[in-house]
Predict the structure.
Amino acid sequence: MIERRLVVFSGLDPRVADRIGPSLRSIAVDIAFVKLDPAGLKAYFERLTSRVLAVTDKILERPDVRLSALLVSGFEAEEEQEEEAKYFFPALRRLAVPVELRSDRSAAPRLFELVKNTMGADGFKAFVRSVSPREEARFLMPLRNSGCRPLAGHFKALYRLETTGLSQRIQREIVSRRGFRGYRVNGVDFSVVVNSEKHPIRRCTDTPHCDLQARLRLGVHVPARLEFDVTCETGLATKTFYLCDGTASRVSREASHLNMRLNDDFREGKQ
């Protein structure tokens, strides 16, 4: 397995990113950034999301790559951070950097050390290894459709690098089932499956944002064909689930299960 790392610069002057780029590449870290957009934050984050997808496409051309990524952000204002999170939470984890580093090229060495120490820390590397279908798939649960109310808040703490593990409350509410590769939440079962190439990738929401949400979870690359087979002993009929774009969809009476990606996109299955 080849380890690759990616740093996404958000809200930083491109000249700072250019200055730090060679140092990061010397320790096998790729970078992704775009210029701040005069049209506003929405246009900026849409372009940055597309750039991240393009960079990861290239990195993941080889099947034997394990990719981890970090969002390095110079945005300080609350409204900036909220807009940023719409695009990158929970796909990445966010390292907030002092606002004075946002455009100071001479501070690039300080920024390099900060990024290197963050990604090189034992806790960071252990977290990357734990986020996988085989280790701890609770980290991969579809956030909107998980049925676990405290999960979003806990994921936000992970996003802000405030913790690296799962709280006991999350582990109690998302119950690991014996003899069943998955979890039960409020009577709904989520079975973890990595399909073969014979199975289609169920891409329901056609946006770069939702593609990124399906590719990375908390800074860790997830197999493209990973899905949760969602079932319920009392049936799924008339239950409401949500697609990645927030669209609500009520399950038909003919559905025996749902095939759901980690970004919440799903299709009905029939036995």
About this structure: The chain is about 30% helix and 25% strand. The CA atoms of residues 40 and 82 lie 14 Å apart. The chain has a mean pLDDT of 93.
